[in-house]
Specification:
Shape: globular
Radius of gyration: 12 Å
Strand content: 15-25%
Number of domains: 1
Order of helices and strands: EEEHHEEH
Bound molecules: zinc ion
Length: 70
């Protein structure tokens, strides 16, 4: 599970599958997943394009020795 939706669908949060770090209120500020993910990829998050995940935060990326495909 990577993206948590609120029941009314107006907001969602991104959850790191490695450490559980959660970034809240993305839907409220950025409105759609594609925009959120393109932004987070640029900030070091890795994972698949699908909101179903898995996704990893920059901290977990470093710990796992993985590199983002840029
Ligand atoms: Zn993490």
């Amino acid at each position: 599970m990577t993206v948590l939706h609120v029941p009314d669908g107006s907001d969602f949060s991104l959850v790191c599958d490695g450490c559980g770090m959660t970034v809240h209120h993305l839907g409220a500020s950025l409105h759609n997943w594609d925009l959120v993910w393109s932004l987070f990829r640029r900030h070091g998050w890795i994972g698949v394009r699908s909101s179903c995940g898995p996704h990893g935060c920059p901290r977990c990326t470093l710990r796992a020795g993985l590199v983002a495909d840029q």
